[in-house]
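Look at one record.

>
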Amino acid sequence: MNPIIKDDFKKRLQENISSYPEAKIHSAKLDLDFGFDCENIESQLIKDKDHDRVLWIGLDLQVLQTPYSEILAMLTHANLKDGEHAIDLGAGYGRMGMVVGYLFPTLQFTGFEFVNERVLDGNKVYTQHHINNSKMIYADLAAVEFQIPDADLYFIYDFGSKKDVYVVLEKLRVKAQSKNIQVIARGGGVRNWIIQDFPWLSQMSPYEVFPHWTLFRS
């Protein structure tokens, strides 16, 4: 990629955003310029999909996905070291991978997503931008056979039903038995579920609450 264009994207990802509405507008513009095809894909999904799972198809894209500015704040606060691994459990189109690719080139990112059309689009954009430390993978997070890989930071939004989220949080509990992990929970739903029913995470060390996300450490 042209170094001038690459530097422009870096600057735009680091813009100072003062409000959530501004963050959503900023993110929508970046999606278009990065080359994501979110609008067309979601429109087609509404027509084609038989929804027997909670996949958030039809949800406004700026609600479905976390703003880029918020992702940058999360990763900065998590303070991961060179070579460490961040995983997004229910990654949408993989915005976190773009932030990692442009601003945290020494980290590794994996985004797991159940809607394969989103996975394919995310990986297409990573390739177009020559981002080699980020990847998207199709997965059913709640399936018995899905094993969560080792990582240092896990990001979880309300990616599906409460039942599915609980299955994944239990998998993280097992993972935390062998190493210390950080978990970023976005939204009040998953944060409250962790506080109420997963004391291994909410009571092991003080958690930090931000306007739209909470950082837990095991």
Q: What stands out?
A: The mean pLDDT is 91. The radius of gyration is 17 Å.
